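Field reference: sequence -> structure
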Amino acid sequence: MRLGWGDDLSAVLTRTDDLPSSIRKGKPFVPAVEWEGEWREMRAGMGGGKLSFLDRFKAWTYGDDKDREKYKTLLVREGRFASLSLSLSLFVGWGDDLSAVLTRTDDLPSSIRKGKPFVPAVEWEGEWREMRAGMGGGKLSFLDRFKAWTYGDDKDREKYKTLLVREGRFASPFSDLLDEGCKTVYFRLVIPKHAPAASPEARGGDIAGVRWAGPIAVHFPATGDEGFSLRSGFYAEPLAARDGVASVILTMSYYGRRRPAAWGGYKGPAKFETLSQVMKMSASVVQEGSCLIEWLKAPPARGGLGLANDVVLTGASLGGAMSALCAQVTPNRVAVAPCLPSHGAGPVWTKGSILSYTVDWKRLASGPPPDLPAGLLASLPPGVTAEPRTPGEAEDLVEHILEKVANMLKEPPPVVSGASVIVYMKNDLFVPPWSTKKLAHHFGAELRALDGGHGSGFLLAHLQFRRAMLDALAMLGGASN
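Structure field:
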């Protein structure tokens, strides 16, 4: 699909054209290889473990069963290195409103805790509609079949239930700092249709005409999540169909229907131009999430639904971190199950993380220096300058900004202690495992480690992620505070 030419097309074509001769004329770059784990044995044709469909297909390529004795034990090891061709496309500027955004972001947690959270005026988009769990609402696509696999084997197919789905929207409380086109928050509700009605004694109530007595999961978006589909298929639908848990799926500014008007709508992956935009994206979704929880919990006299249902906050990657921060700032009793979260933004964007290679540190250093709040300027340690002139100085400054403003360790743990389950991947190169462990220690959370990296966690660990959500809800039910 041709979505556009690309602003950097000229540079890319020039590099591509010159590449063969430049490699021949000079000494090829020797990458700094980092190993992922140690050597391990693998039986040829077995894929290193249980004989899956893919492994059987590989075995077929070796020959028939008479050749199986020829299979040998292999040694396998993976490595990684930074690509010289990695696109430097993020943070090409600081942002004219950076000072105001940093001040608001730094003050946000305490301001939410001190006052009564804003109860949004929700407007509904259409009526409740039915959706068959595992079908994605329509034709059974490859993605739907993959989602169906997450529900269990064929014997479990009869457990699929009809769900009720409805979308709503409200104005973001962060609107004064958001770009045009980002100011409206969109969300989706997913509820089992044939769930028991809420009785006067039940911990539940009425959600826009639907009586619901069970728990509710609030799903925060990950980086790059443009809508509802992935979180609906991987989490909300199976939670409703198999576990009797309703879901609220929240959208994030700068993605999907909330892209800035200046970007001209949806034209490929989101391309953040300034540090300010990334900070606004993260801070706004925390405040919007706390407002959504308040709408669920606040009495009708304040414009809320007045629900007494147990609530768990969750998400993966950025969504996991934002769900954790929202659990810290909301005054409501909630469980939290962050998956693949960091303790702050610094370890994700600086000092060797994969995403640090996507930031154009050279352009940040060559442009005008950022406008920083006075308190942040006063906190600069020796060796960190407010007027960076080299890529290293720019990265040091960003690391200090994020450590001061976007660091969950400086905020108190959630209101309910002992209702937190955190999941991380042992070989995560986007979110350093040490950062996740810091957050878990701060929360006093149960920490669960899974084999694999960030990408495999997203694609293959949603069963374990859902189990973390359910276990956190069970902990909330047994918590005394």
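Note: Residues 60-64, 136-142, 151-160, 198-202 have pLDDT under 50 and may be disordered.
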